[in-house]
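Lecture 7 notes: from sequence to structure.
We start with the chain below.
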Amino acid sequence: MHGPGSAAWLLVALCAATGAYCLLRMRSGVEEQRRTAGSEALMGFGMALMAIPAAVITPPRAAWALYAVVFGAAALRALRSSRSSAHHLHHLVGTFAMAYMAVGMAAAPSGHAGHGGAGAPLVTGLLLLYFAGYVLWSGVRLVPVATAGGGPPATGWGDRPELARACRLSMGIGMVAMLLTL
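Predicted C-alpha cells for the same chain:
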C-alpha cells in the first residue's frame, strides 16, 4: 500500500475526504442510506490509514491483524446484507479486498508492501479487474444526462445520489491504487 510519498499522501487525502463526506451522508432521513454511508465511511477511513506512507509510520503486524479482523467482520455484515440488496455485493467485495490487503501486509517480510509479492497474484489480479471495471462503470454513471422536466427536487447533502456515486468512484480509484502497490 505504500507507494511514492506524494502519491500516497494524495491517496490518504482522497480517502479521508471521502470518509468524512460519508459521515455527513449518515445524517440522511433514509435508514438504508445511513447504513450504506456508515459502511462507506469505514472503508474510506480504513483506506486512508492503510495508505499512510511507510516513511511516516510503519504499523506493527498487530495493527494489520486488527485491520484484517475489522474488515473481515465488515465483510460478514455485507454478506448478510447482500441478501436484500445487490449494492451490498459491492460492499462485500470491497471489505474482502481490504481484509485481503491487511492479511497481505501482515504477511509481508518487512511489515509493509510496495514492491509486490504481498498477496496471491491471481486474487490480486481478479480484484484489480473488478475495481478497474467498477471505476469505469461508475465514472460513466456520473456523466450528466439531459432531463426533460427540469431537475430533481433539491435535497440535503446526505441524499444527493451523484455525490454518493462520486464517493464510490473515488474509493474505487483508491482501491485500484492500493491493489497495484500490494
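Points to note: The chain has a mean pLDDT of 83. The chain has six helices and no strands.
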